[in-house]
Amino acid sequence: MSWKVTIYAPRDVIQAALIAHEDAWDWDHDIVIAGSEIAEDKPEDWQLEAWLDRKPTKADQNAIADLFEGAPPTLQIEKLPDTDWVTLSQQGVEPIREGVFHVHTPEYPPLLERGVRDFVIPASQAFGTGQHATTAGCLAMLSHMKRQGVTVRNLADIGTGTGLLGFAGLHLWPTARAIASDIDAVCGPVVAENAANNGIPLGDGVGRMAMVIAAGMDHPLLQAAGPYDLLIANILAGPLVELAPEFARAVVPGGSVLLAGLLETQEATVRAAYRKAGLRLAARMVRGDWSILWLRRRAAGGVRASRVGTLPEWSKRW
After folding, report:
1. What are the pLDDT digits (tens) for 300-318?
2. Where are the beta strands (DSSP E) in the chain?
């Protein structure tokens, strides 16, 4: 991406703009945006950054400015050098330690501590090295679920990015079968590379993870592999609300859904959607401005256990 637009504003203003972006059904997806605090010692001072692979047109600038209510914000526009900014932003990041997990880039050594699972996730175009508060929070919540006695024989990681959360699930429940998906085709080879680097077998079977490219639950293999004891989705609040009925149908009664990618200000809306779909809150945590939710489906009627065994032969062509 060769151009960047930056807007500085208080935290609540930037967060409101991020929510408006999720609700903008006609948004040009060539414009990628993100919000963050400017510095750790200034938690109320935030910035919204928008990246484009072209010089921002007047229409582009108006679309970004329209995310903000009231007076038009000041847009700072700059041309960037030809650099893979997503990869660069992940290089040299410090390792994280969450739950029973230690996640690091190849620039850092493994922890090699008894009872701790090391994952090496190189910088890539797919999101999810664990540095982001939501991913780190999911690792902590998964560890908590295991301590609480949750049993998983079949799990799905929707919006997997690098595959990290699916890998973590298989470490905690090594006799489970897993399937990961992402809407972005670049994640396919990224997950395959990361699986090889971390000793995670791909494919169908106990202790293995299948990988598909799909939007939400829209893939035959996701349908064939369910129902699930655990479904993980670290995406965005808008899609989480939209997918609530499908996610609820995809888990067994008593099964778990782990949600992340939502701001704390969006939590009430997300929880309402899942409550309507028949899931109740089991636990929650807040990391920075982000909520991580563990929900469980009411155990009443229907199938009470995930399927155990191999996938149907027709599905193996996916």
Report:
1. 644 445 554 444 454 444 3
2. 3-10, 32-39, 42-52, 76-79, 96-98, 101-104, 117-120, 154-158, 177-182, 209-213, 228-234, 251-263, 279-287, 290-297
